[in-house]
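Subject: Protein entry, chain in single-letter code together with its fold tokens

Area: Proteins and the way their chains fold up in space.

Attached in line: The record itself begins immediately under this heading.
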Amino acid sequence: VQLQASGGGLVQPGGSLRLPCAASERIFSNVVMAWYRQYPGKLRDLVAAITSGGSTDYADSVKGRFTISRDNTKNTLYLQMNSLKPEDTAIYYCKISSWWGQGTQVTVSS
């Protein structure tokens, strides 16, 4: 399985981005999907996760601003990011079961 993350880019503080992560083939619905982010020189941190039942979990720093969702029919995971802050600047990675996407850069700057 290959995962293709996209949607990153440069956005001003307070702006929004939506990151899709498309799987190359059908992903069984009973897997956990998640988004991580990585700052330079740091380990990847969990941003948000969603179970097959739709339960979600978020890092405290993004609660109320980010929303994770999944569309099993399209084999795609999403991360809607609103009210972006400069500290959200990082490379964002999707993870579905044990597979990782290649990462997409998000830069929040005026």
In short: The first strand starts at residue 3 and ends at 5.
